[in-house]
Design goal:
It contains eleven helices and 24 strands. By secondary structure, it is of the alpha+beta class.
């Protein structure tokens, strides 16, 4: 640090303040941004989970009726018994469109709302054909009936895979409208149950997507302003009534991103599709019309489908006062004002700071002095062989003392510098024994007295004097830093004002001194 010059110290402090304020501002911004991100992620995930819970409530309301799961339902797997039990469930819950019973071989029984009544489908033992009956008023119609919309092989394949992957207690949601050749989207929730005789079966409840969307629209949204059902291939069904209405005639139908009319849902679905790689997509932000939104899709499917419940939450709904844009802007203004205030104080005290730095340049050892001598005399270094002894006349002389004081005052009025007494003009170390001081203290006392009488005691704080042994000889080192006020030298001929001009000390005329004052005031 001793090599740190005065101006360098000032610049270090000046730019240090700027960098510190910038670092504080940057860290605060990053911290707030991280808080914003975490708050948005938590909000969008909680919203999606809460809404998925609403879907589960809908399902539980259906399957808890008459204790469908466990005791009370599926006491018998005969078509007549299933027709009565499942028909009662369908009649009690208008949101249900179909109920299927299946096992490891595929479909065992299907009862669905069709043609103004109900349609019953029962496959044969070989699963090569299916017998369909139209049910009216709870009884099968004996008239011939054929429902060509059911592809048994496709239904069996999907149900068997789903049955083999489900674990007890799990619920798997998937799209199922393609099983029945219907235009509206159907969603099926499947879960494992046991029949009356302990046989492991799978019970599947089919809902029209419109019924689920209506239930979601009535549920607590938790900050979400857009809700939609989403499939991993980029298709979706928006929830009506939240600014994301489907096109006319498309309510309850699965739409591609291009067919979605709401820009928020469209961009959310597009972003989800771009990020979907088979795993769950993490919440992410996007911008629509200058507003930041966060979106996430909670998977509803465990196997066989990519059905998820998607939500989009505007960032404004999750920001607190301390993380709002206005707070950040106010914080930035405060930081800037603090920075300007500190920099203003630094600028007002620049001379003092530079003086502190320049004091650290002072040589403190013989090695330091030798390094200075090797650099040669210049604007900030001057050699004097004696402090008061005139080598030519062989006696002490005021003119010799004046020469040293002139150099010191010039250093104080310019950029500071070092006076070495005991060094010849050629740089050889001579010491100042010719001055005849009894001790080092006496020499320092004499110099300080000269300063007090001819320069002023108030300027002594801008100087540091020390006697240092160099090559076995004593050298008086006087280190000066720029003074905060003009230094007037009180000489025998009157007051004089000196500044450094290259390696010399130059006296200024009254006019030159006036110009100097205007320049340095």
């Amino acid at each position: 640090m001793r090599a740190l010059r005065g101006r360098q110290l000032y610049l270090l402090v000046f730019y240090g303040v700027i960098c510190t304020v910038a670092a504080i501002g940057g860290l605060a911004y990053l911290g707030v941004r991280e808080i914003r991100r975490d708050a948005a992620v938590v909000a969008v995930e909680n919203s999606a989970r809460g809404l998925s819970g609403a879907v589960t409530v809908l399902l539980n309301a259906v399957r808890s009726t008459n204790q469908e799961i466990g005791a009370g339902l599926l006491k018998s797997l005969k078509p007549e018994a299933l027709r009565n039990e499942l028909g009662a469930v369908l009649r009690q819950h208008e949101s249900l469109t179909a109920i299927m019973v299946s096992d490891g071989q595929g479909l065992r029984y299907l009862l669905t709302r069709r043609y103004g009544g109900m349609v019953e489908a029962v496959p044969d033992e070989m699963h090569s054909a299916v017998t369909s009956k139209l049910i009216k008023n709870g009884k099968p119609d004996d008239a011939p009936f054929s429902d060509g919309g059911l592809d048994l092989s496709q239904v069996d394949q999907v149900l068997v895979e789903e049955f083999n992957h489900l674990e007890p207690g799990q619920v798997n949601w998937r799209s199922a409208g393609r099983f029945h050749n219907v235009k509206a989207a159907w969603l099926t929730a499947s879960t494992l149950v046991s029949s009356g005789d302990g046989e492991r079966l799978m019970l599947s409840f089919a809902f029209q997507a419109e019924a689920i969307l209506s239930h979601l629209n009535e549920a607590e949204h938790g900050g979400a302003e857009r809700i939609f059902l989403y499939w991993g291939d980029g298709r979706a069904i928006p929830v009506s009534g939240l600014g994301a209405d489907a096109p006319v005639g498309a309510v309850g139908q699965v739409l591609t991103a291009e067919e979605l009319t709401d820009p928020v849902v469209r961009q959310a679905v597009t972003g989800l599709a771009a990020r979907f790689k088979g795993d769950q997509v993490k919440p992410f932000p996007f911008i629509v019309d200058g507003e930041v939104w966060w979106t996430w899709a909670k998977p509803l499917s465990i196997f066989g489908d990519t059905l998820s419940l998607g939500v989009a939450v505007p960032r404004k709904n999750v920001l607190s006062t301390l993380t709002s844009d206005s707070f950040l802007q106010a914080g930035a203004v405060v930081l800037i004002l603090i920075a300007f205030g500190v920099l203003f104080v630094l600028h007002r005290n620049r001379a003092r700071i530079e003086a502190m730095g320049m004091k650290r340049e002072a040589a403190v050892s013989g090695t330091d002095v030798q390094a200075l001598i090797r650099s040669g005399e210049g604007g900030r270094l001057e050699f004097k062989q004696t402090l008061r002894f005139n080598l030519k006349s062989g006696k002490n002389g005021k003119e010799i003392e004046h020469a040293s004081l002139k150099t010191v005052s010039a250093f104080l009025n310019t950029e500071g510098g070092t006076l070495l007494v005991g060094v010849a003009d050629d740089g050889s170390v001579t010491g100042f024994d010719e001055d005849g001081f009894d001790s080092d203290d006496k020499a320092l006392l004499h110099f300080n007295n000269l300063v007090d009488r001819h320069i002023g005691a108030e300027f002594s704080r801008y100087m540091d004097s020390r006697i240092i042994k160099v090559e076995g000889k004593r050298v008086l080192r006087v280190h000066c830093v720029p003074a905060s006020a003009p230094v007037i030298l009180d000489a025998s001929k009157g007051e004089e004002f000196y500044v450094r001009s290259g390696p010399a000390s130059r006296s200024l005329t009254l006019k030159q001194f006036y110009d100097w004052l205007k320049k340095h005031s």
